[in-house]
Amino acid sequence: MLSNEQQQLRHLNLQISRRLRACLALAEQHFKRTFVMPEFNFNLRGVKAGVAYLQQNEIRLNRTLLLENSEEFLRQVVPHELAHLIVYQVSGRVQPHGKEWQFVMQNLFKLPADTCHQFDVQRVQGKTVAYRCDCQTHQLSVRRHNNILRNKVRYHCRVCKGVLLEEDA
């Protein structure tokens, strides 16, 4: 007997396949060429919703975030990652969210060209360490924290450009 999560993933697998086929049809119609259906799996970990592996023609989705946000994944995340694959096959290596990708998202898929998701990542985030800059507190991953300690790397705030310093230091 399949668990509830397994049943849900099986159903989502079918829905994702349908969504990919529908988006591929739009791209094929526009570019007047065929595209190979990408492989996809639910092996992505961390806080990213999805990642496109260009040369493998593969999409990896975050299982936890998918199960918690399945409608938004089908509406936005799956086409977002597919757009990366299409752009790579048509234009080669270009800016990840550049004008080619934005064109596919907005003109072919009729979706906003959003580059980041707004999902609650608490369940997938892992342990973090608090760092401060001149304008706010940042939660850095343990990997980045260790990178600072071992390799004397410095991270800067994207807003104020200040160096991030550990809060308890």
Looking at this protein, list some descriptive labels.
169 residues, alpha+beta, 3-stranded mixed β-sheet, 3-stranded antiparallel β-sheet, 6 helices, globular
Whole-number mean pLDDT: 90
Rg calc: 19 Å
Give the CA-CA distance, first to last residue.
52 Å
pLDDT below 50 for ≥5 consecutive residues: which ranges? none
Principal-axis shape equals globular
Number of β-strand runs? 6
Structural class: alpha+beta
The profile of the biggest β sheet is: 3 strands, mixed
- Tell me the series of helices and strands, N- to C-terminal: HEEEHHHHEEHE
Share of helix, binned: 40-55%
Which sequence of strands runs across the widest sheet? 1-3-2
Tell me the quaternary state.
single chain
Measured by DSSP, the beta-strand proportion falls in 5-15%
Annotation field: number of helices:
6
Summarize the structure.
This protein is 47% helix and 14% strand. The chain is built from six helices and six strands, in the order αβββααααββαβ.
Describe this structure as you would to a colleague:
The protein has 169 residues and is of the alpha+beta class. The protein has helices at 4-31, 63-68, 70-91, 99-108, 122-125, 142-151; strands spanning 39-41, 50-53, 58-61, 128-132, 137-141, 165-166. The protein has a three-stranded mixed beta sheet with strand order 1-3-2. The protein starts with a helix and ends with a strand.
